[in-house]
C-alpha cells in the first residue's frame, strides 16, 4: 500500500506517564487528528497510517501494547526472535530495535514461558531436520541410482510413470494415492510391499515415519507440504494441525514423551543441529538441554508442562511501572513508510498483510484495543488457515465409468487417466439377496444392474488408479470383503441402506484399507449423515447425489446444492463429492457450493475432447476454492 502523506499523530503521552489507560487517549487524539484533515491534506490510505508516523513521535504505551500483541501472534506461529523482528519490520514497519526491546522485556517478565517456548522451538527444528534426513534416507534406499529422466508430470499424486524412474530429490508426492486394499504395490524394482509412505510404496521393512513440527506449513516453506503428504487415515495426519490451532489448543503435536517413546536416537541430530535457537536469543537453557545433548534435552522436556499457552504470557507491559530502556526508547516505534530497508518475505505475505492491517487498526481506530486485536486476530487465523483447508480438499475429478464402453474397461480407464482424471468412479448396482428370511428375497436399491467385485478385480490388474466405488446396494456390508479383496480404493455406501449398521460398516471398510464414504439420495436430508461424520468412527467422504441414482445422463438437480453448502460450512476439510448431471454447464453451481470431488459420466465420455472437460471441471473447483 502506498502512503500519500503521513498523518501527524501528536502523541503527547510518554511511556513513563503513570496515567491509567493512556493508549486510549492517544488513540483518540490520533483519530481526531485524522478527522481534521481537509481536502488539501491528502489522507493516507487505510493501510499506511500507523506505519508512517515517524515524525519525532515518542513511543507510547499503546505502541508497546501493539508490538506486544504482534509478538504474541508471532509466538503462536512458533517464530523465533529474528523471525519476529523481521516480520514486524517487514509488515508493520516496526523498528527492529523497538521490537527487540519489547521482546526482551517480555522475556524478562515471562521467564518460564520463554524457557518452555525456546525448547519447543528447538524441538521444532529438530523435527524438521529429522524429517528431512528421513526423507533423504528413504530416497537413498529407494532410488540408489539416480536415473537421468525428466520429471514426470504429476496428476494429484498419480504419476504417469513408474515411481522408480523418479530422480533423486524428487519431492514427496503432494497427494498420496491411497493404496488399494489387498493390492500389493508391485514395485518394478522387485520390491513388493503393501506399506505405502507418502504415496509411494515403502520397501521391505523400512517404515519411514513423519513427525509434525506444528508449524512447518507456515514458516518453513521447505517442508510446507509435510502435512499434505501424510496419507489420509494415517494417525499422523490427525496431528497435522494448523499453527494457530496448535497454539490455541496449547498442545504441541509431538510431545517429548511421544518422541522418546518412539525410540528415536537423537544423537545423530546433535552434530547436525547446533543449539542456535536459544543462543541466538541469548537464553540460558538449563544444563540438561544444552548443546550436543538432545537426548537429555528430550528427556528433560518430559518434565516441562506441554500444555502452556499464550495465556501464560501474563505480563502486561503497558501497565508496568518500570519499562527500563523500553520506556526511554528514542524516537518512534515505527519506521517511515518509505523506508527502503523492508525485507522481502513473500512466503509470509498473508501473515504479513494481516499484521500490517492489525498494526494499522490498532493504532488509528478509536476502538477498544482488545476488540480490535481479537477481530484482527481472527483475520490472521483465517488467512493462515485458508490455504491449509484448500490443501486438504483437493480438486478430484472422477469420470464415471458407467458411461464408458464396458467391453473395453481397461483401455477406457487408461484413456481417462491420460486425460487427467484423478479417480475412476465405479457405480456398483447389484441385487442383494437376503438369506436370513424364510423365502429368499432379492432387494434392489436402484432399478439397474452394473458391475461388482469380479470386474473391479479385473480392472485392478490393469491400473493402479484410485477406484472410487459407489455402492448402490441394499446390504453394503456384504460387499466390503469382496471389494476389499478385489482392490477397491474407496467404498461409498448409502445412508438409506445402512441406518442400522453404519458403524460396523465403516469399521470394516477401514479395516480393509478402503476409504469410507457415505452417499445420500436427493430425498434424504443432509442431517442424516451428520452422525457418520461426527463420531469417532467417521466416514471420510460424503457423496451428494444430484440425480436419482441408477442411470447416467440425467438432469442435474441444483436444489441439492444447499446440502453441499451446509456440509462445506460444517466440515471445511471434508471430501464432498457430487454425482449426476455434472458438466461444463452445471459445474459452477456445484463448486461454488463447496464440492471438491466431481463425478462426471456423459459430459466427459461424450465430449470430443474429454481432457478439456476434465480440466474445465478441475479449474472450476480450484477457482471456487480461491474465491471462498
Ligand atoms: O451414479 C450415477 C448414476 O447413479 C452416475 O455416476 C452418474 O449419474 C454420472 O453420470 P452422468 O454424469 O452422466 O450424470
UniProtKB/TrEMBL annotation:
It comes from the Eukaryota. Residues 1-57 are annotated as: Disordered. It is an enzyme of class 5 (isomerase). Keywords: Isomerase, Metal-binding. Residues 7-34 have a biased composition (Basic and acidic residues). PROSITE patterns: RIBUL_P_3_EPIMER_2. Its cofactor is Co(2+); Zn(2+); Mn(2+); Fe(2+). SUPFAM superfamilies: Ribulose-phoshate binding barrel. Signal peptide: none annotated. HAMAP family: RPE (MF_02227). NCBIfam families: A_thal_3526, PRK05581.1-4. PANTHER family: RIBULOSE-5-PHOSPHATE-3-EPIMERASE (PTHR11749). This is ribulose-phosphate 3-epimerase. It comes from Solanum tuberosum (Potato). The lineage of its organism: Eukaryota, Viridiplantae, Streptophyta, Embryophyta, Tracheophyta.
Amino acid at each position: 500500500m502506498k502512503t500519500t502523506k503521513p498523518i501527524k499523530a501528536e502523541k503527547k503521552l510518554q511511556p513513563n506517564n503513570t496515567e491509567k489507560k493512556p493508549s486510549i487517549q492517544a488513540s483518540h487524539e490520533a483519530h481526531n487528528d485524522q478527522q481534521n484533515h481537509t481536502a488539501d491534506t491528502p489522507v493516507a490510505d487505510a493501510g499506511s497510517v500507523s506505519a508512517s508516523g515517524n515524525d519525532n513521535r515518542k513511543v507510547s504505551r499503546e505502541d508497546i501494547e501493539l508490538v506486544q500483541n504482534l509478538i504474541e501472534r508471532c509466538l503462536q506461529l512458533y517464530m523465533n526472535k529474528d523471525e519476529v523482528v523481521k516480520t514486524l519490520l517487514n509488515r508493520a514497519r516496526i523498528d527492529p530495535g523497538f521490537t527487540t526491546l519489547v521482546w526482551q522485556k517480555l522475556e524478562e517478565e515471562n521467564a518460564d514461558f520463554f524457557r518452555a517456548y525456546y525448547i519447543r522451538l528447538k524441538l521444532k527444528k529438530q523435527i524438521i531436520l529429522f524429517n528431512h534426513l528421513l526423507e533423504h534416507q528413504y530416497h537413498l534406499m529407494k532410488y540408489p541410482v539416480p536415473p537421468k529422466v525428466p520429471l514426470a508430470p504429476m496428476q494429484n499424486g498419480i504419476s504417469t510413470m513408474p515411481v522408480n524412474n523418479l530422480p533423486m530429490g524428487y519431492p514427496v508426492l503432494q497427494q498420496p494415492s491411497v493404496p488399494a486394499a489387498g493390492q500389493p504395490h508391485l514395485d518394478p524394482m522387485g520390491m513388493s510391499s503393501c506399506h505405502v509412505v507418502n504415496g509411494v510404496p515403502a520397501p521391505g521393512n523400512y517404515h519411514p515415519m513423519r513427525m509434525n513440527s506444528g508449524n512447518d506449513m507456515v514458516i518453513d516453506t521447505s517442508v510446507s507440504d509435510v502435512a499434505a503428504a501424510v496419507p489420509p487415515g494415517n494417525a499422523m495426519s490427525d496431528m497435522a494441525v494448523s499453527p494457530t490451532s496448535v497454539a490455541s489448543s496449547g498442545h504441541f503435536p509431538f510431545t517429548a514423551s511421544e518422541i522418546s517413546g518412539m525410540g528415536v536416537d537423537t544423537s545423530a541430530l546433535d552434530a547436525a543441529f547446533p543449539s542456535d535457537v536459544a543462543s541466538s536469543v541469548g537464553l540460558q537453557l538449563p544444563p540438561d538441554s544444552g548443546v550436543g545433548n538432545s537426548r537429555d534435552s528430550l528427556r528433560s522436556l518430559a518434565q516441562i508442562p506441554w500444555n502452556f499457552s499464550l495465556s501464560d504470557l501474563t505480563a502486561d507491559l503497558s501497565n508496568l511501572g518500570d519499562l527500563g530502556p523500553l520506556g526511554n526508547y528514542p524516537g518512534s516505534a515505527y519506521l517511515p513508510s518509505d523506508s527502503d530497508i523492508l525485507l522481502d518475505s513473500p512466503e509470509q505475505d498473508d501473515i504479513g498483510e494481516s499484521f500490517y492491517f492489525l498494526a494499522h487498526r490498532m493504532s488509528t481506530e478509536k476502538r477498544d484495543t482488545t476488540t480490535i486485536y481479537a477481530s484482527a486476530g481472527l483475520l490472521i487465523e483465517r488467512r493462515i488457515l485458508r490455504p491449509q483447508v484448500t490443501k486438504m480438499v483437493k480438486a478430484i475429478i472422477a469420470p464415471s465409468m458407467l458411461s464408458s464402453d464396458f467391453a473395453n474397461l481397461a483401455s477406457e480407464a487408461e484413456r481417462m487417466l491420460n486425460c487427467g482424471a484423478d479417480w475412476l468412479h465405479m457405480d456398483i448396482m447389484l441385487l442383494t439377496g437376503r438369506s436370513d428370511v424364510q423365502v429368499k428375497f432379492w432387494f434392489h436399491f436402484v432399478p439397474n444392474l452394473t458391475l461388482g467385485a469380479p470386474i473391479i478385480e479385473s480392472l485392478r490388474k490393469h491400473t493402479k488408479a484410485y477406484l472410487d466405488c459407489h455402492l448402490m446396494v441394499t446390504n453394503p456390508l456384504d460387499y466390503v470383503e469382496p471389494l476389499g479383496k478385489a482392490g477397491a480404493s474407496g467404498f461409498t455406501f448409502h445412508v438409506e441402506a445402512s441406518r442400522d449398521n453404519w458403524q460396523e460398516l465403516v469399521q470394516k471398510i477401514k479395516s480393509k484399507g478402503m476409504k469410507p464414504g457415505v452417499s445420500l439420495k436427493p430425498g434424504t436430508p443432509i442431517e442424516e449423515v451428520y452422525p457418520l461424520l461426527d463420531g469417532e468412527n467417521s466416514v471420510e467422504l460424503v457423496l451428494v447425489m444430484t440425480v436419482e441414482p441408477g442411470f447416467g445422463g440425467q438432469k442435474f438437480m441444483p436444489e441439492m446444492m444447499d446440502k453441499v453448502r451446509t456440509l462445506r460450512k460444517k466440515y471445511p476439510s471434508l471430501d464432498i463429492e457430487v454425482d449426476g448431471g455434472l458438466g461444463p454447464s452445471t459445474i459452477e453451481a456445484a463448486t461454488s457450493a463447496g464440492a471438491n470431488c466431481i463425478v462426471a459420466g456423459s459430459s466427459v465420455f461424450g465430449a470430443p475432447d474429454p481432457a478439456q472437460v476434465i480440466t474445465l471441471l478441475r479449474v472450476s473447483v480450484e477457482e471456487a476454492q480461491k474465491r471462498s
